[in-house]
Prior knowledge:
Number of strands: 8
Low-confidence stretches: 1-25
Largest sheet: 6 strands, mixed
Structural class: alpha+beta
Strand order of the largest sheet: 4-3-2-7-8-6
Strand content: 25-35%
Shape: globular
Number of helices: 3
Distance between the termini: 47 Å
Radius of gyration: 17 Å
Order of helices and strands: HEEEEEHHEEE
Helix content: 10-25%
Amino acid sequence: MMRFLLAVVLLPLWAFQCHDKESFVPGESQSFIFGYFNDFCMGPACTQLFLLKNNAVFADSMDRMTENPVFHSTSLSGDKTVQAQALRDQFPQELLDQPGVKLGCPGCVDQGSLYLAIYEDNAWIRWELDPDTSAL
C-alpha cells in the first residue's frame, strides 16, 4: 500500500518534470546515432547517445535506453559536429555488410554496450558492440 501511495504522489511530479524537455525522434536520411548505454546502471545518466543529422549533433534526452532513442532539439557546438562527421565517415564497411548484428557480448558483465545506428532506405540499421575488444 505504501508503494502505491508513493507512486501516486511521485508520478505527477515526474510527469510534470518531463514536460519541459524539448526533444525529438530522429528519422531522416543520413542520420547517424552513436554512443554508449548500460542496462544495469541505476543512475540518471545510463545512456549517452548522440545523433548526427543535417550537419548538427544532438545529445539524447533519456536516462535509460529505449528502442527508439529520443534527442534534445538543441544541437551541440560545431566542433562536436566535425568529430561526429569524422566518425560517420570512418564507419567500418564490415558492419555495413552485417546489418543489425550484435558483436561480442554487449551488456554482459555490467560493462554496457556501444550502440551504432544508421538511417538508410527509410529504416534504422542498428548494431550493439561489446566494449571489451578482446570479445569481438
